[in-house]
Specification:
InterPro entries: Cro/C1-type_HTH, Lambda_DNA-bd_dom_sf
CATH class: Mainly Alpha
Pfam families: HTH_26
Low-confidence stretches: none
Strand order of the largest sheet: 1-2
CATH topology: 434 Repressor (Amino-terminal Domain)
Radius of gyration: 14 Å
Distance between the termini: 29 Å
Helix content: 40-55%
Domain HTH cro/C1-type: 22-70
CATH superfamily: lambda repressor-like DNA-binding domains
Largest sheet: 2 strands, antiparallel
Oligomer: single chain
Strand content: 5-15%
Protein name: Helix-turn-helix transcriptional regulator
GO molecular function, one term: DNA binding
Number of domains: 1
Length: 83
């Protein structure tokens, strides 16, 4: 899950699950789209602050998927304030 929520929303990254479903390792898809496997690992584990649009496009085409297949917008519970 992306660590910096905005107005109670964040991203849940699901690339790892998608790769498993499609039968790819992180290294295989990295080679296929011309990215370092460490970058793919960071995308899959929500460690990358900014997803390059070029990486997203290449992932969509190679995996025949949509943005929702790679990451989902989710609401996060706001910490309650104590008075």
């Amino acid at each position: 899950m992306y660590k910096k929520p905005y107005k109670g929303h964040t991203f849940l990254f699901t690339l790892g699950d998608l790769l498993e479903t499609k039968g790819y390792s992180q290294r295989e898809i990295a080679e296929l789209i011309g990215y370092n496997h460490i970058t793919i690992h960071k995308i899959a584990n929500a460690k990358l602050e900014n997803l390059p649009i070029s990486a997203a496009l290449k992932l969509y085409v190679e995996l025949n998927c949509t943005l929702d297949d790679i990451m989902k917008l989710v609401q996060v519970k706001e910490p309650s304030s104590t008075e």
